[in-house]
Amino acid sequence: MSGKPPIKFFACESSTYLAEKIAHSYGMELGKSSVDHFSDGEFQPSFDESVRGCVVFIIQSTLPPSDNLFELLLMIDAAKRASAYQVVAVIPYLGFARQDRKDKPRVSIGAKLVADLLSKAGVSRIMTMDLHADQIQGFFDVPVDHLYASSIFVPYINDMNLEKLVIAAPDMGGTKRANAYSRFLNTDMVICYKLRKKANYVDEITIIGDVKDKNVVIVDDMIDTAGTILLAADLMMQNGAESVRVVSTHPVLSGQALEKIEKSSIKELAVTDTIPLRHKPDKIIVLSVADLFAEVIGKVYNNQSISSTFIV
Question: pLDDT tens digits, residue range 120-134?
Fold first, then answer.
């Protein structure tokens, strides 16, 4: 092959909305692909144009149901079998990332299994954003470009010009992220300590630090049932906070989370478009990751460093 291999963008079904924005930001159109559905529930994705000798970027967040993950695996396999030069999986939201360790006996490590499945399918590289745990990068046997939504959220927080700003971690696991934000923004930090006896249910929460008369911004990688965030926001307001806002990368927002947020004491929730919202209440602000992914894709394709895209 002479010269640089051509680049092509493709989308799986649930992330077409985001893939179109990424491709447009890069200055290209999405490639043509389709999915055949069978009456028994099986499906078969296919490329409707040649990918031979191309660097193929397949864009898909692996949000529930697991069909989204399997569709991505099938697309990767199809690209390899169609003689693609390289296959890069762009996974803005990596599902099963919360299963990164054995936290009780006789359970799987789902994040490692997903990494093995992607590698076995034939992926050459992974591009993702705000993994639930940084060490998940080590589960892959291929390069991982781990992007951070702080590149989007920090300018957004700065533009709000909040007085007496305090950054909050929603749990002990989020202290590293919150500390990075607070150092960059030169603010104080508080920590929420939660007691959880089972998944998606918080039994008790306490706040470590002073929030009285402060404008609090809670930073997190994902918001699922919103139980922790709502309890923390209520407790901060009870402890004299002036306002509570939340920035969270991945809006999983399962169950009645959207409705609860709309009725809560949270003034504003800023999220990204790594996962599509069922509907958007007035309190929710959606910031797009498309330009950031397009920029990093260009740098990776041209063998340039991506470190300049990191803020914190």
Answer: 999 999 999 999 988
